[in-house]
Structures are given as C-alpha cells and as structure tokens.
Design brief:
This protein is an alpha/beta fold and 228 residues long. The protein has 7 helices and 11 strands. 36% of the residues lie in helices and 17% in strands.
Length: 228
C-alpha cells in the first residue's frame, strides 16, 4: 500500500494538478508494477481542498470533509489516466458512489484487480468525515492484506526532531510501535497509527522524491525508517 499526499501532484506550491508532477509520480508507480509487485494507492486531496486550510471559509466540517473526499477522487482519476498513458492498467475504487467515473470500493473486487496486476487506486478516503487519508490508507492496507504500508514523504525517514529546523536531528532506521508512541513521534495520525499497530501492519516512511525510491521501498531495500 502506497500512501501519497495530494500536494505531490500539485505545482511548486502544492496546489492543483501539475502535469509534470503527475507524470513523474505515475512513472515511479509503474516501475513497481512492472517489477511484478502488486500495488494499491491511497492519495490525499490537499492540493485541491483541505479542511484545516479552509476553516475560515465558513463551510461546516462534515461538508468540508466530503469536499476533501471528492478531491481525492479527482486526484485518483488523474493518476489513473497518467498510469494508463504509460501502458499499465489501473482501476479507481472509491468509497463514494460515482459510477460515471469510478467503480465502488469492494474488497474482493479490489483484490482481484491486484491479482490481475492492475494498479488499484483507493479514492474517497474512508467514505466518512473526520477520518484522514492516512486512516484510509491504513484501513485499506489491512483489508487488502498488504505486506507493508509505504508512507511517502518529503523527508528520508523519521527523526527525533524536525530535520529542516534542527541540524542535529537523529534519524531512526527502525522503530517499534511502542517506541514511536513513547517518543511522541508524529508518523501518522493516531487513528491510522493505532490501526497499524493493532493489525501489525508495518509502516515504512521514506523520501519519495528520490528517483526509484518507491520501487526500492517496495522491494524492501534499506531506505527510510521502518516501524513495526
């Protein structure tokens, strides 16, 4: 299971859908599929809409969260097109009912797509407000019996402080779930993290902006920080 943010599909500010960024991510994902690895994806929607950035808009939280879910579907459909332009089959499976552009998320159907070597893009979050796409990624990873949840970020792992602010920040190669809790390390939101811990779903946090990083992470190479 690959979790990416919506911002990585955007322009330099992380806004909208940038064709170059979209194509770059699609190429990296296709490398994984062509290596014979089954891959499912959950993408955020922050490049289009995010509640915490739009609180002042006066839109009620539940409505705003549904708007965010629709944003993830827009990203999912765009990513599907970019992947298929590269000759790899993919499906968008959404938790919201939008039959004109995507199929409904049905676990057994999604598993079958993976078995047929199709990339499965799980969009629409969990289908419920108040839950993040991190939680959606953790949930789908567990449901689809994934081997690991790949948390793609802009830093190359988990640190004991913000590496962009603290030059002496220490990077962890491996962590246990308990260590991450005790040290209050912000790996994922608490709901997502708790689900991974209870289901023993490993999490690999890595820098996705390096060439071949997604493939290396999927192949189990020693990059980023492994939480297990």
């Amino acid at each position: 299971m690959l979790k990416i943010s919506g911002e990585v599909l955007g322009d330099k500010k992380g806004d909208g859908i940038d064709v170059d960024s979209l194509t770059k991510i699609a190429k990296e994902i296709c490398k994984v599929q062509k290596a014979g690895i089954e891959v499912a994806i959950v993408c955020g929607g922050g490049n289009i809409w995010r509640y915490r950035d739009t609180k002042k808009a006066g839109i009620e939280r539940t409505t705003s969260d549904y708007m965010g879910m629709m944003a993830t579907i827009m990203n999912g459909v765009a990513l599907q097109s970019a992947i298929e332009n590269l000759g790899v089959h993919s499906r968008v499976a959404t938790s919201l009912d939008l039959p004109q552009i995507a199929e409904p998320y049905i676990r057994r159907r999604a598993v079958r797509h993976l078995e047929k070597k199709r990339v499965v893009i799980c969009a629409g979050g969990t289908g419920n407000p108040y839950f993040t796409t991190d939680t959606a990624a953790a949930l789908r990873a567990v449901e689809l019996n994934c081997d690991i949840l790949l948390k793609a970020t802009k830093v190359d792992g988990v640190y004991d402080a913000d590496p962009e602010k603290v030059k002496t920040a220490k990077k962890y190669k491996e962590l246990s779930f308990q260590e991450a809790i005790e040290k209050n390390l912000k790996i994922m939101d608490q709901t997502a993290f708790s689900l991974c811990r209870e289901s023993n779903m490993k999490i690999l946090v890595f820098n996705m902006h390096k060439e071949n990083a997604i493939l290396e992470a999927a192949e189990g190479k020693a990059i980023g920080t492994l939480v297990s």
